[in-house]
Design brief:
The chain has 238 residues and is α/β, with parallel strands linked by helices. The chain contains eleven helices and six strands.
């Protein structure tokens, strides 16, 4: 009897593609991003929006998984569009990845507070943009390394009420959870946190999930803000 042929199909190839909505008021930018995203076998561009209002409506009608959102757009800017998407229970599974023109963009903190899962500067490498889309689609958050220090400085210079629920802060965490939070705030992913603390990746992921639950944070982007606003992490410290 002949042995059954082995099935070498890639599980990722059979998974539903990530549905991406592109929101930018510049036609050439949208076209370039659309070409890039469409070239990825695990993604599809389901719609394009020229302003924030269109982005909100298309996020609802096209059931996008990820919205790649420009901040500065007419009619409704990317921050308010992000806020409306994050506040809509019907769009609970939609993630917003904000793109900024400059790494000193003064609206980055507002976008994160509005509910964005992360941000990148527009001159990021194409492969990094695709990786970022995959990251936020998986429920993680992403902060572009370049502007992170400037983001932190701005948060500390002009603090506002913390994003998580009132009364919740790092003091409510265990010592291990505070260690994990500090590493997350410095930009480490779950695998890097696990390596730094000699944990398994699953344990690191569990710690991060529990921390977000205790602090009432939407994702890692908000954890970064909490860690620095609370003084758990101080800019410049290694």
């Amino acid at each position: 009897m002949r042995p059954e042929p082995a099935n070498h199909a890639d599980p990722a190839a059979t998974a539903a593609p990530i549905r991406v909505l592109l929101a930018d008021d510049q036609h050439l930018v949208r076209a370039s991003f659309a070409l890039l995203v469409s070239s990825a076998p695990d993604m599809e561009v389901v719609a394009q929006a020229g302003n924030g209002a269109e982005a909100v409506e298309l996020a609802r009608s096209e059931r996008a998984d990820v919205v790649v959102m420009d901040i500065r757009m007419p009619h409704l800017d990317g921050i308010e569009a992000t806020r409306r998407i994050a506040a809509d229970d019907d769009l609970a599974g939609v993630r917003v990845l904000v793109l900024t023109t400059y790494d000193t963009d003064e609206y980055v903190v507002e976008a994160l507070r509005a509910g964005a899962s992360g941000f990148l500067v527009k001159d990021t490498r194409p492969a990094d943009l695709l990786a970022a889309i995959r990251t936020v689609a998986a429920g993680e958050a992403l902060l572009s390394p370049g502007p992170t220090s400037r983001l932190i400085a701005r948060v500390l210079a002009a603090p506002s009420p913390p994003v998580p629920n009132a009364g919740a802060g790092p003091d409510h965490l265990t010592d291990r959870e505070r260690q994990v939070l500090a590493l997350v705030a410095r930009g480490l992913n779950n695998a890097e946190v696990a390596d730094a603390l000699a944990l398994s990746p699953l344990t690191a992921k569990t710690h991060v999930s529990r921390i977000m639950g205790k602090l009432g944070a939407r994702d890692r982007a908000q954890l970064v803000i909490v860690a620095y606003e609370s003084g758990l992490v101080v800019p410049g410290e290694g």
